[in-house]
Amino acid sequence: MKVTIVRDYNELSSKTAQLIIEQIINKKNSVLGLATGSTPNGMYKELIRLNQEGKVDFSEVITFNLDEYYGLSPEHPQSYHFFMWDSFFKHINIKKENVHLLNGITENIAKECKQYEALIQKSGGIDLQVLGIGNNGHIGFNEPDISLNGRTHLVNLTAKTIRANSRFFNNAREVPKQAITMGIGTIMQAKKIFYWLTAKEKPGLLKEQ
Ligand code: F6R
């Protein structure tokens, strides 16, 4: 494992954008695993800038997002589907058919999860997975006590996660109580993973590293 300490959020955003660019330069049809949350915003902005300046080409890149709230439609402003299109995909030259997001309003959760896993396999597996860490240590929506072998599945969100994510909603009651997430087993199959930890927001987690 390689640890890089950065000075501030701008450096975090440009360094992580650079890791993605290197991946795409090495393999133009790279399969990226992507995250939402607050931390990736700067990295997505930097990637948009570099794409618009012609320094990175997403035309053959394939993406799979980590997770989605169960019960929110793709059009819902707090869905991860909406977030990803609004803050990233619509600004770059990625093909719509190469973008994969879980369907938060699926009527058949088991089928949705199985299909997602099959699509990841069919695309050759994730080359580079981007991960954030929740303030209770969650990865995707996998809470700390979850099985390390799990595949994409439905989870109940803990009260702590609901509280933390209520900052994106009007209040905690509006936060969905469940989500669909790649499992730790799915994530660990990625060929490379990088994750970030911001000292200011998560000092406790940083001490544990
Ligand atoms: C988002 C996700 C979450 C976030 C985590 C950290 O797709 O899977 O695990 O990465 O909650 O979020 P921020 O970046 O807001 O601290």
Helical run tally: 7
Radius of gyration computed on alpha carbons? 16 Å
The separation of the N and C termini measures 12 Å
Q: Which ligands, by name, code or SMILES, are bound?
A: fructose -6-phosphate
User: Which spans of ≥5 residues are poorly predicted at pLDDT below 50?
Assistant: none
Helix residue percentage: 25-40%
Q: Characterize the overall form.
A: globular
Q: Could you characterize what this model shows?
A:
The protein has helices at 9-26, 40-52, 80-87, 109-122, 159-165, 184-188, 203-208; strands at 31-34, 62-65, 67-69, 99-100, 128-131, 153-156, 178-181, 192-195. With 209 residues, it is an alpha/beta fold. The longest helix is centred in the N-terminal third of the chain and has 18 residues, at 9-26. The mean pLDDT is 95. It binds fructose -6-phosphate (F6R). Fructose -6-phosphate binds at residues 35-39, 66-67, 132-134, 138-140.
Using brief descriptors, characterize the structure shown:
single chain, 209 residues, alpha/beta, 5-stranded parallel beta sheet, 3-stranded antiparallel beta sheet, 7 helices, 8 strands, 34% helix, globular, binds fructose -6-phosphate
Topology:
Layout: H1 9-26, E1 31-34, H2 40-52, E2 62-65, E3 67-69, H3 80-87, E4 99-100, H4 109-122, E5 128-131, E6 153-156, H5 159-165, E7 178-181, H6 184-188, E8 192-195, H7 203-208
Parallel strand pairs: 1-2, 1-5, 2-4, 5-8
Antiparallel strand pairs: 3-7, 6-7
Helix pairs in contact: 1-2
Bound molecules: fructose -6-phosphate.
